[in-house]
Design goal:
The complex is a heterodimer of chains A (102) and B (546). By secondary structure, chain A is mostly helical. Chain A has four helices and no strands. In chain A, helix 3 packs antiparallel against helix 4. With 546 residues, chain B is α+β, with helices and mostly antiparallel strands. The chains are: A mainly alpha (102), B alpha+beta (546). At the A-B interface, helix 1, helix 2 and helix 3 of A face helix 1, helix 6, helix 8, helix 10 and helix 11 of B. Chain B: Keywords: Membrane, Transmembrane, Transmembrane helix.
């Protein structure tokens, strides 16, 4: 009951921001994660892609949980976007180095 | 937000779950009915009429069917990018053809006479989507891609709710052995906990394997990046099949498909079931023929092929042969196939199907008790989350609870009645059946918003009970068949549908009587509570559940 009664005190914008961070930020982070994983898992390309994809929903769930546990909505967004950029750049490096298909 | 982790998770569990509880209940409830889709379809097609129609019919001629099917597609779909044919067998004697003009287009399909190739037209059979209706409901709500995404989002909410729910209920092992009946809100919480904990592994498994089955739609990033947007290439690669051939834009006729059927059946030693042709009419055309599986063999394994042969569809040369039971791909693909099999219950026969049915209904009950608990708690002590409009929002939640839970059950058994009452000769009757199902479901929402909440529950549960218990009666009146006659001729599927419906009807009577008694007790209970505010039970509940 305590937590439910917290809801109206939270500015609506903060809740909206956090839900967006979870849904969209979490999806971006998950996508970046599985592309990166597909490069570093040392098995056949198709198998690495599928392994990463099978893990994706667990990663997404974890990301959403983390977003709602973060102290502020801003921290939640940062936690989604910064790793997304880092993993995206790393994947871009792999892409340029190896070509798209192995 | 200076909350502890558990408080944050509690907020997430309550509010995340609430807005998706009705969608998820519908997914669980219809998906669980879908476990028995074959039996439901069998009952809905009217076994007596099907038997009468197939008597004296010649045995299916697959070569003739392939010939007339090819002629039909060459005439009616010369520009198609993909053809497919479902060959006739003893159970389904029609030839089914499918095609689409572009990879993005919707499939078109026709049912043909397997000998003449003529459009089968309005048949004397009771045309119905049968149990597939429930299967389609549970993954797309008959709303195509929009429905698939809606269910995908709801499934992710469910995964998050399961994890946050575990965090909230830290006394998870104790909860499992705790049930305090007749204590109002406390009992609802106990039953929600017991149902969740008991079937938690099943709930995780069924939701996770469900989203994984649609992973190529929901999570395509890795495959798209690594295969330059060509998912077909990825599918071929993961199954260790020849890579899809690029369009050459050079016209070339498709070789006679009956010859390919003969070649494939000789090679594998099984009956051909489905023919698919990619790029028909182009020099790059290829065909794959899939063989019929052996049911006993399929029930005993999680993965492995039923056998298929791929041909160059212009020259007729064999490009790839996959023998029955052959396992392609390595660990990840095997995992994927096993997860699909776990979701679609293609293994283990009726024992496992019943286990899924019970666990699936427990999952639906977990969602229902959670949504009811939300309102039971707030009826007792409004939390005022929505300021001045709180009472109105509660009323909407109440109405959605009644029609989302009892109303869906009512519409689902109503679908069986609709099947028997819609005239057999009505054109597109299978579409009418589904339309009327949704109309009935909508009516339950109208009813729920007009009636006081408790009356709404009682009346819809009672109506559901009546429709369940009287199902054999309407069947007898419309088709002359009933479960006793079905049992006597050894048709366990048809009998099982009616017996299960009647057992569910009895449960609905119990539920309706329970709600009825509660609604009579409510005023007294409120008086009694006023005498002892902040009792130990309430404090316990408030500390634990939000």
């Amino acid at each position: 009951m305590k937590s439910a009664s917290i809801a109206p005190q939270r500015p609506r914008l903060a809740i909206f921001s956090r839900v967006s961070a979870a849904v969209f930020g979490g999806y971006l982070l998950t996508s970046a994660c599985i592309v990166f994983l597909s490069y570093i898992i040392p098995i056949r390309t198709a198998e690495a892609v599928l392994t990463a994809t099978l893990l994706s929903f667990a990663l997404y769930t974890g990301a959403v949980i983390w977003v709602f546990a973060a102290p502020t909505a801003g921290r939640a967004w940062a936690g989604m976007l910064l790793p997304t950029v880092a993993l995206g750049l790393a994947s871009l490096g792999f892409y340029l180095a190896t070509g798209s298909t192995a | 937000m200076k909350n502890t982790f558990r408080q944050s998770m509690s907020w997430l569990h309550t509010w995340g779950s609430l807005w998706f509880a009705w969608i998820l209940f519908a997914v669980f409830f219809t998906g669980t009915l879908g476990v028995f889709d074959d039996a439901i379809s069998h009952w809905m097609r009217d076994p007596l009429a099907v038997t009468a129609a197939s008597e004296g019919a010649p045995p299916p001629d697959r070569l003739q069917a392939a010939k007339v099917g090819q002629a039909f597609l060459e005439k009616n779909a010369p520009k198609a990018e993909f053809w497919s044919m479902g060959l006739p067998n003893e159970e389904n004697t029609k030839l089914r053809v499918f095609w689409r003009d572009t990879p993005q287009a919707e499939f078109q399909d026709r049912e043909l006479d397997p000998v003449t190739g003529e459009d089968a037209g309005p048949s004397k059979e009771r045309k119905t989507e049968g149990g597939h209706h429930f299967v389609h409901m549970h993954f797309e709500f008959h709303a195509g891609d929009a429905g698939i995404w809606l269910v995908g989002v709801a499934a992710m909410v469910m995964l998050v709710a399961l994890v946050s729910g575990i965090v909230v209920h830290k006394k998870i092992f104790v909860d499992f052995f705790t049930f305090r009946p007749g204590k109002g809100q406390r009992s609802w919480l106990d039953s929600h906990n017991a149902l969740s904990v008991l079937t938690l592994p099943f709930q995780f498994m069924i939701v996770y394997t469900g989203v994984v089955a649609f992973a190529s739609i929901y999570m395509p990033a890795a495959a798209m990046v690594r295969y330059n947007g060509d998912l077909d290439h990825f599918f071929a690669d993961i199954q260790e099949r020849p890579a899809p051939r690029q369009m050459q834009n050079v016209a070339a006729p498709v070789t006679p498909l009956p010859d390919l059927v003969t070649a494939a059946e000789e090679r594998i030693g099984r009956e051909a079931r489905v023919i698919s042709v990619s790029h028909p009419g182009d020099a790059s055309a290829s065909a794959r023929i899939f063989m019929r599986g052996d049911e006993a063999e399929m029930a005993s394994r999680l993965r492995g092929s039923n056998g298929s042969v791929q041909f160059d569809a212009v020259s007729g040369e064999i490009l790839d042969t996959e023998m029955p039971g052959e396992i392609r791909g390595a660990g990840a693909f095997s995992t994927f196939q096993s997860m699909r099999a776990l979701h679609f219950v293609t293994f283990g026969g009726y024992t496992i199907k019943w286990l899924y049915f019970i666990c699936g209904m427990a999952g639906a009950a977990m969602l229902a008790t959670g949504a009811i608990l939300f309102m039971v708690k707030r009826r007792k002590k409004p939390a005022g989350e929505f300021g001045a409009s709180t009472a109105r929002v509660y009323r909407v939640v109440d109405a959605l609870n009644v029609s989302g839970i009892a109303g869906l059950m009512l519409a689902s058994i109503g679908y069986f009645w609709i099947n028997r009452l819609v005239p057999v000769a009505l054109p597109e009757r299978e579409t009418w059946e589904i339309g009327l199902f949704f109309a009935l479901w909508f009516l339950t929402l109208v009813h729920a918003s007009l009636r006081p909440t408790m009356r709404g529950w009682v009346e819809q549960l009672a109506a559901t009970a009546f429709l369940c218990l009287a199902l054999p009666l309407i069947n007898m009146l419309t088709t002359g068949d009933n479960f006793a006659a079905a049992l006597a001729r050894g048709d366990g599927e048809a009998a099982g549908v009616e017996l299960t419906a009647m057992a569910s009807g009895l449960l609905c009577i119990v539920a309706a009587r329970f709600v009825h008694r509660k609604s009579l007790q409510a005023p007294q209970a409120a008086k009694a509570r006023a005498g002892k505010p902040g009792s130990a039970v309430e404090a316990d509940v408030e500390a634990e559940a939000a």
